[in-house]
């Protein structure tokens, strides 16, 4: 069976282009026209490959690399081999990511799984839906009545776009995504299996649990990315909102009425309970749990596996269960470790 290549590099990138992207001059003695065919790890890169290095544990790999070009942080510059064009910069990974996008533009967002343009055979688009020119709808996708989809958007196979949903331009709706009761901005990426706009979990508890109708919406602003199998519940009486530029990993649960600010980062396994607000630039590490009706202040960071049960001030770094400022958390962990060590020393020796 042949070994397929899913992302074929685009030709035309040269050392000169790489240096320009980094805002640097081509190193003396190297040809600006030297071409870059691909990106590769330090260990396997060849003379026409681009690599990067910004982590001390890969120092030996850098010293032995055969990469044609290496983007490198200043503290590792002296270890770049003589045959490699070393471009020294403060943030090599960011420049590398930009260049990788130029080499593989098709990897930046999900495309048509059918390899076609327009509405494919087997797609079901309601006559009352409105699709701008340049929309792609893969087989098995359903677009409901009154839905509107902007130019350049791709709707993957098996996706379901509910009645009156609005999707902006240049979006990617992955395979099997369900979208209902939602307004989606421009350049939004929804990875396969994401569920946006379903019922929030609302019940009046009693001898029998009375369902509370969820009559709000989900609003996803521009440039948001939502990972595979993540769920965003629609609001109960007001909207659930995901702010501009926010990036959400796979397998995240966002409950009804949650408001997430701009440019937040939410890592896999996070659960955010209803009516909580995250201000701009908040970061939640993997498997963080946040109870309802809280406010996490602008720029705060919560360590992975923490449980947040009270408001977090802006600019804070918290961790633990229950979460607290990191200095208090570290003191607590250190004290527990010392107590455990002391307890072990005080135990009588086994005379058996």
UniProtKB/TrEMBL annotation:
Keywords, ordered alphabetically: Acyltransferase, Lipid A biosynthesis, Lipid biosynthesis, Lipid metabolism, Repeat, Transferase
InterPro entries to which the protein is assigned, alphabetical: Hexapep (IPR001451), Hexapep_transf_CS (IPR018357), LpxD (IPR007691), Trimer_LpxA-like_sf (IPR011004), UDP_GlcNAc_AcTrfase_non-rep (IPR020573)
Residues of the active site: 256
Complexes and interactors: Homotrimer.
Function according to Swiss-Prot or TrEMBL: Catalyzes the N-acylation of UDP-3-O-acylglucosamine using 3-hydroxyacyl-ACP as the acyl donor. Is involved in the biosynthesis of lipid A, a phosphorylated glycolipid that anchors the lipopolysaccharide to the outer membrane of the cell.
HAMAP family on file: LpxD (MF_00523)
Protein name listed in UniProt: UDP-3-O-acylglucosamine N-acyltransferase
Lineage: Bacteria, Pseudomonadati, Pseudomonadota, Alphaproteobacteria, Hyphomicrobiales
Gene: lpxD
